[in-house]
Amino acid sequence: MGARVIRLGTRASALARAQSALMASALVEAHPELEVEIVTISTSGDRSQSTNQAGADWGTGVFVKEIESALLREEIDLAVHSLKDVPPLITAGLTLAAIPVREDPLDVLVTTDGRGLGDLEPGCRVGTTSARRSAFLRASRPDLQFAPIRGNVETRLRKLAEGQYGAIVLARAGLHRLEIDAACVVLEPELLPPAPGQGALAIQARAGDREIAQLVEPLHDPATAAAVRAERRLMAELEGGCRLPVGALGTPGQDGLLHLLGGLARDDGSLSVADATGRLDAPEELADQLAVRLRSPGAGERRRVVYA
Questions:
Q1: In the chain, which ranges are E strands?
Q2: Is residue 104 flagged as an active site residue?
Q3: Catalytic residue selected from 85, 107, 209, 275
């Protein structure tokens, strides 16, 4: 009898394939009798990477829709996503079957010579298509020019090297998973709260598929799952998304507690950054409490900045 073949769906980018390879190796390590076939699927988000401008549907699951459709059609058995690409409301008929241990969740400022944010010259062109990154960094450096940039990690680094930008902002996890050694400075979460779920992966399966659920169970990390549940709940409560300026970072403690940092940039140009601590086994309750504080200016936030 041949090995059981599991079809794993993913985007075709180098980062997505690297992430899926990690999950495939973990599956085979947990179940040596398995054979994992990686199936690459083109998404609408991938197909729109030729322009620096984000499309009208940006932030609505453009990097997962086609993969989810393949999963629902049973063309693949499971999917691996960057969790930050998955909308808070999970598509009907699907479930997040496992959340593995998280990579570094923070953002980094990448330059050709390793300069920090405070070292950039006034007017420096900083590449990011994220409203969150632009809003929070502009609060500290309103004299910088924040310009859209698209493409995969390698493409963005090439644009930086060519001088199209003086600096770019990337997720540190992507550089680590691609094993890219770039000159960069970590942007602390109080300065730039990361995207909810950043650095975490999501293994998605069909709801009710018990066999797949059992296969991926060894890859699930409850502490990471609790942290990102809090982050995603906060995003949903604040009506944030991929292009909206909401940041969140959950940090599990050793004592059954969960620390949650959140940030919100409002349309009037003001920022609120606040934090709270609650029970690790009640992440949504903690997120709801923090959402109330962030929606109420002055209610205990760490900083509030207004910029022109």
A1: 4-10, 34-40, 78-82, 94-98, 107-110, 125-127, 145-147, 167-171, 184-187, 201-206, 246-252, 257-265, 270-279, 303-306
A2: no
A3: 85
